[in-house]
Design brief:
Number of helices: 0
CATH topology of the largest domain: Jelly Rolls
CATH superfamily of the largest domain: Exo-inulinase, domain 1
Helix content: under 10%
CATH architecture of the largest domain: Sandwich
Shape: elongated
CATH class of the largest domain: Mainly Beta
Distance between the termini: 31 Å
Number of strands: 33
Length: 435
């Protein structure tokens, strides 16, 4: 399954108030996600800022010069594998929505692992490869998947129940197509799942569901392109497995964006008049649908995140416009949402397994500049159970909630049903750090 954009709907709890009154809203459950074959095409910009942590004690350095470490080799009805030419070569013969794991000669639960990969055959949208960690059996594991169509995901299975920690997302860090090589590095340590692709940092998400177990290489062969039944081929080489160092909070800016281009892999879109586009040095989200909010996310995932940005209403009736940011975004049924409106009100809500709850109801603040054309400098912090919202350097929300731990972050904008005028909001000067 890969992510398909679905708008989120607003519905008023009571009649919408005009002018200086804030709007109390509840969101309707979103439709279910669709298979990858119907996913929305997105841009493929450049990777985010490179980040290179220190290395720990090396436990395994495998160059596949021979098979002295007894990797699984041979052929059966579903797979072929061999060690040859300094590579571990794997073929999945039938793309049927299955994945296969390959057991290494060492076992370690908390792990820092890196490998060079080469996608050798098959439809890019049918393939995925990477690592498992905290692997106990086929029903319990964390999984890092990279696909040669330019997407990646992090998910888990706990007692057969599968769920995403971060949904399939596009990033230009991935070299695409048949013949493409990619260096992958994954770290599973202290409940953090961290991923680098070609030395570019792309994700640090948190999950406490699993511990113990070990790690594996993995290859998946899916049926997203049902017209292509060709086998999936992946080569692995230069595998290095290390003990991870003690996890330390990154102190540098992990992503900065002045929106002069789409180098940070934002999932820009244009759908029936609703859009998120980079225009004239700004991210512009436009919404024409009544009682709707749309989100746009980059190719970087952080569960714990501090993001700052400038936001301004570009068009629309100020009482009809909401904007802000989302963190811990897993899908349209799981997220925290920080919203502000054009009248100077703000709110904090959460949705957990499709149930919407208000954490902080709509409240007016003199810290927010009201009106069309006014720029507000916004800061959002999601750190463990702490949720904070600042406007123009003044704290408006400081709340505690531990319902959600995983997921990424997004910018958002939406319109209410005050009138029929479309709205648009601009975002600029964004910085993303670990809080």
């Amino acid at each position: 399954m890969k992510f398909t954009r679905i708008k989120q709907l607003y519905f008023a709890l009571a009649a919408l108030l005009l002018a200086s009154l804030a709007c109390s809203l509840v969101e309707a459950p979103a439709a279910t996600e669709q298979p990858a074959a119907t996913s929305v095409a997105v841009a493929t910009p450049e990777p985010t800022q490179e980040q290179k942590p220190e290395f720990g004690e090396i436990l395994l350095e495998e160059n596949f010069a021979d098979n002295s470490n007894n990797w699984y080799v041979g052929a059966d009805a579903e797979t072929e594998s061999l060690v040859e030419d300094g590579k571990y070569k794997v073929r999945i013969l039938i793309p049927d929505d299955s994945f296969y794991w390959f057991v290494p000669p060492v076992s370690i639960s908390e792990v820092d692992m890196a490998v060079d990969t080469e996608f050798t055959e098959g439809a890019p949208e049918n393939a995925a490869y990477g690592f498992l960690c905290h692997f106990k059996d086929g029903d319990n594991y964390h999984r890092f998947r990279v696909a040669p169509d330019g997407t990646y995901a992090i998910d888990k299975s706990v007692n057969t129940e599968q769920s995403y920690i971060f949904e399939w997302t596009k990033t230009n860090a991935i070299n695409q197509g048949v013949g493409a090589t990619n260096k992958l590095r994954a770290i599973c340590s202290e409940n953090h799942l961290t991923l680098y692709i070609n030395d570019a940092f792309v994700a640090d998400v948190v999950d406490t569901s699993l511990s113990g177990g070990s790690f594996n290489l993995m290859v998946g062969a899916y049926a997203n392109n049902q017209d292509d039944k060709n086998p999936i081929g992946v080569n692995f080489s230069n595998l290095i497995v290390q003990k991870p160092l003690t996890w330390e909070r990154p102190t540098e800016v992990l992503m900065a964006d002045s929106f002069d281009n789409n180098n940070n892999s934002w999932d820009i879109f244009d759908e029936n008049g609703n859009s998120a586009q980079i225009e004239n040095g700004k991210m512009v989200i436009k919404v024409v649908d009544t009682d709707s909010v749309y989100r746009v996310w980059p190719g970087v995932a952080l569960s714990n995140v501090e993001m700052t940005f400038d936001a301004a209403i570009q068009e629309g009736t100020q009482a009809n416009v909401a904007y802000g940011a989302t963190c811990r975004y897993l899908d349209n049924n799981n997220y925290y949402s920080f919203s502000m409106d054009g009248d100077g009100y703000y709110t904090l809500t959460k949705k957990v397994n499709g149930t919407l709850e208000t954490i902080i109801d709509w409240t007016q603040s003199s810290a927010l500049k009201a009106g069309v054309g006014e720029t507000n400098h916004v800061r959002v912090v999601c750190l463990d159970s702490t949720l904070e919202l600042y406007a123009n350097d003044q704290l408006m929300i400081s709340s505690q909630d531990a319902s959600l731990t995983a997921g990424g972050f997004a910018l958002q904008a939406g319109r209410f049903a005050v009138d029929d005028q479309p709205m648009s909001v601009t975002f600029d000067n964004m910085e993303v750090k670990y809080p």
